[in-house]
Amino acid sequence: MATRQMTPEMTDEDDVIDRLALLRGAVTAHARSEERYEFPQLRARTTEAERRKLAGKVKAAEDR
Known about the structure:
Blueprint: H1 13-45, H2 48-63
């Protein structure tokens, strides 16, 4: 993942708050989409064993 250097223009408190609000909205929309569309599709098209295996892989990736 690429990181960006903070510049003086990016440190304005109001700008940071605005950017955090945008990020929060994007994360919330993403999670809502997963819950509403993606997870039901996964449940419908996979077995419990497949989902457990996938969950293990996700957990391993998170722990890295």
